[in-house]
Amino acid sequence: MTASSGTTPRDAAISPWRLTLRYWISRLVVAILTRAYLRVRIYDRGRLPAGPAIYCFNHLGWVDPFVLMAVLPFRPKLYFFGPKEEDMHDGARNRIMGWTGTPIPYKPGKNDLLGATRRVSAVVAAGGVVAIAGEGRIHASESELWPLNDGAAYFALHNKVPIVPLAINGSSWLRFGGRVTVRVGEPLPARDRPNREAVAALTQQTWEALHALVRDAPDVPVPGRFGRWFTERFNEWPEGSREATLAASASRQADSG
Question: What's this model's pTM, rounded to 2 decimal places?
Answer without folding.
Answer: 0.88
